[in-house]
Every structure is written in C-alpha cells, then in structure tokens.
Amino acid sequence: MRTYAILSILIATLGLLSCNSSQSGQHTRPKINPKAEFVSLEGRVIGPVIKTEEEWKTELDAMEFHVLRQAGTERAFSGKYWDHHEEGTYSCRACELPLFESDKKFDSGTGWPSFSDEYMRGNVVQVSDNSYGMMRIEVNCARCGGHLGHVFNDGPEPTGLRYCINSVSLKFLEAKRN
Ligand SMILES: [Zn+2]
C-alpha cells in the first residue's frame, strides 16, 4: 500500500513536470538546412529563411508568433480559412513558400483548414510531437521552420491523410500554379 502511494506521487509529479515542459512555450523549432532550395509560386529558386526568434517577433503579430514559432493552436472555427472555398494556393504566412492548394482542401468538420495532400513534397516537414500526452505528427514549413499544425491518417482517399492546419500559419493567394 505504501509503495503504491509513493508510486502514485511519483507518477503525479512526473505528469506535472511533463505538462509544464509542454506548456512553457519553449518549443524547439526544427533545424533548417541552410543549403536547401525551394521553388516559389512564380517558379523562382529560393533559399531558406533563417531568422532569430527576436527577428520573427518584430515581423509577425502576437498570434502568428505564438502559432508559427511556439507551436500554438488557434481556436477551432476562429481562423480565416476553415470555411474558405476560393481557388488558389495557401503559402506560409512567414516566408511565402507554397504549402497547400485549394483542390486538396476538404471540410473536415474540425474548424481548422484541412488538406489531403501537400503542394509539393519537401515543402512540409514532419516531426513527432509527444506533448499533452499524445503521439502526434507535427507539420512545419521546410523553408522557415514555422509550425503549421499536425497530420493525421484519417483523411480522404487517395492519400488517407488529413493535414490539420492553423489559418494563422497560412496566406492565401488566388494565383494558381500552371
Ligand atoms: Zn515558412
């Protein structure tokens, strides 16, 4: 009985510690490859965008910084794009790398813009995320390391994927790629 009590306290303490670390805002952004090359929406070859958190803070508004740089999440049904149906491309809010397209967007009912595929392989990078006691796959912009959301495997065919993305991480552009 005593062992059980001590164990319970230990587990509770560990739980508190892990909660604190995931809610502290000290989220480590993925490393950017300084030699990586990407293609802009206009077809130009563009390099990575590497900035300090201080620099990002001056360029992004408070909510954009919280989501893109600290892996925050906007409230469901509160963003600009969950119910947005125009044709075009969704680029990264921070660096303008094209990430998703309207023809892969679907209504998931979650209150966040949801896509079944990426614009181009390599533009979105995946990192495992164990915060909040859940095993999830976080998705980030490969050019600037900005947090976008998560990807789940309960999406529509043919990919079966559901990219659940924060509107605040995206910038919609009506121009479509050729
Ligand atoms: Zn970006």
Description:
With 178 residues, the chain is an alpha+beta fold. The protein has one domain (30-173): Metal Binding Protein, Guanine Nucleotide Exchange Factor, Chain A (Beta Complex). It contains 3 helices and 11 strands; from the N terminus they run H-E-E-H-H-E-E-E-E-E-E-E-E-E. It has helices at residues 2-23, 53-59, 62-70, and strands at 38-39, 45-46, 89-92, 98-101, 105-106, 114-115, 124-129, 136-141, 147-152, 162-165, 170-173. The strands form 3 sheets. A 6-stranded antiparallel β-sheet has the order 5-6-10-9-8-7. A 3-stranded antiparallel β-sheet has the order 4-3-11, with no helix packed on it. A hairpin with a 5-residue loop joins strand 1 (38-39) and strand 2. It is globular and about 35 Å long. Zinc ion is lined by residues 92, 94-95, 97, 141, 143-144, 146.
Q: Summary?
A:
By secondary structure, this protein is of the alpha+beta class. It has 3 helices and 11 strands.
